[in-house]
Amino acid sequence: MKKLSDFFETDYDVLVKDIKINSKDVEQGDMFVCVKGVKADRHDFIPEAISNGASCIVGSKDIECSIPYIKVDNPDAILVDLCKKNYDFDGSLKIIGVTGTDGKTTTTTSIQYLIGSDKCGYIGTNGVSCQKFQKPCSNSTPDPTVLYKYFQEFKKAGCEYVVMEASSEGFFRGRLEGLEFLVGAYTNVTWEHINVHKTFANYLDTKVNLARQSKDIFIINADDPNHEKFSLKDKTILSYGTKPECTLYIKNYHVTDKYTNITFVYKKEEYTFLSPLLGKFNVYNLACSMLVCLSLGFNMHTLIDRVLNIDVSGRMEVIDLGQPFKVIVDYAHTPNAIQAVLEFVKNLNVKRIIVVVGSAGERDVQKRPVMGKTVLQNADYAIFTSDDPRSEDPYVIASQMASDIKDKNSYEIITDRSEAMKKAIFMAEKDDIVLALGKGNETCQKLAQGTIHYNDIEEATKWIQERLKEN
């Protein structure tokens, strides 16, 4: 435990147990820092922080306070330095960042598998993990008070590397301010998060921050039309893609419903191997993951040996309990990702494609009809349902998804996601496929009345078991 004088030149000698920026999270002995809130002035919550046991406050206003108060020009500007001091961050961890509209979780998880969870920690949508611990994470890119605490925990667990999802919102909210990445990479950039960034140009530029904050090496997807934006002149640029001049050349691949046979070319050597990751998009995700590791000095043969162990929960996850139809759960929640998943599924030996999908509330409204249209241009039937509606009416969201669909017999709306899953599984016939898209292995659903436990994999498993009992 540190003292306030460890952070500032002050005569106050109060102890600081931890640093918090949300007054509701404050516990006895914590420092409360009044950073700029998205919708509120954190200075207004100083009384609550004191009531919860704060030992000191850091803010930018002239305030009479019953506990030690440190006035600074800009709390946001010093938050990272406070966290680095509090969690003894010395820069020795080798931090890898991956950004992109789609594929961040698969790519970062694959990197952890390729390096080894004993040496590499993971921070992202699927939580925080290494060989010694696993825990949930409220944001795929956490704020500095949480992020640097995880870095400390990874170091204590013996990790040399940390791979993390570097989301556009993480950069936009300043969560990654001042963090240097040893290696950065991006998967792709398509239209998304316009509710936050307002324009695609802003969204793209926010993602380019990962290249700016990468120490030397940055890895690009040469087949993505936006790759030149990431090719900064002061960086060593490595590339992957289907062009022979790429650093890692995707020469060939053959996708089945059980595995993908891939041929990569690296340094003029050809390597053919099997991957458990399904779909063309996962060929790209794996290429990115392997090139990151190769740039760090790992051997190609060692990486290939580890590929078969990769398991990304909630990404193209097949649920097979012996039912006569296929069920796959995937996190795809953008038009681009949905299109990619459905293109893969259409190449399988299936009769009908039945999709269960929703769109998140308090997010980009413009993409909803695009998502709905994309689904029914590639599938036979859709059940539009809830994702995380938050404060919005889930029926309104689902109706917006269906607004550009002329064939009213090709879909229905069931706002209860569990009931939507049940309907899809009970209507499936032999050789059909049910796709549950949007939530992957998330374990909660955010509703207007609060957050509830919900998991697509659990729900699909439950209804498959019920269906099998009836037969």
What does this structure look like?
By secondary structure, the protein is of the alpha/beta class. The protein folds into 3 domains: 2-86, MurE/MurF, N-terminal domain (Udp-n-acetylmuramoylalanyl-d-glutamate--2,6- Diaminopimelate Ligase, Chain: A, domain 1); 94-307, 3-Layer(aba) Sandwich (UDP-N-acetylmuramoyl-L-alanine:D-glutamate ligase), CATH 3.40.1190.10; 317-470, Protein-Tyrosine Phosphatase, Chain A. The protein has 15 helices and 25 strands. It has helices at residues 46-51, 75-86, 104-115, 144-156, 168-172, 194-197, 200-212, 227-230, 280-295, 300-307, 335-346, 367-378, 394-401, 417-427, 456-470; strands at 2-3, 15-16, 19-20, 31-33, 56-59, 69-71, 94-99, 120-124, 127-130, 133-135, 161-165, 181-186, 214-221, 236-241, 248-255, 260-266, 269-275, 317-318, 326-330, 353-357, 381-384, 411-413, 433-437, 444-447, 450-453. The strands form 5 sheets. It has an 11-stranded mixed β-sheet, with helices on both faces. Strands 18-19-23-20-21-22 form a 6-stranded mixed β-sheet, with helices on both faces. The mean pLDDT is 94.
What is the CATH C level class of the largest domain, in words? Alpha Beta
Poorly predicted parts: none
The CATH architecture classification of the largest domain is 3-Layer(aba) Sandwich
| Strand adjacency order, main sheet | 10-9-8-11-7-12-13-14-15-16-17
State the end-to-end distance: 61 Å
CATH superfamily of the largest domain: Mur-like, catalytic domain
The best one-word shape is globular
Total of helices: 15
What percent of the residues sit in helical stretches (DSSP H or I)? 25-40%
Number of strands: 25
Strand content: 15-25%
Count structural domains: 3
- How much is the average pLDDT? 94
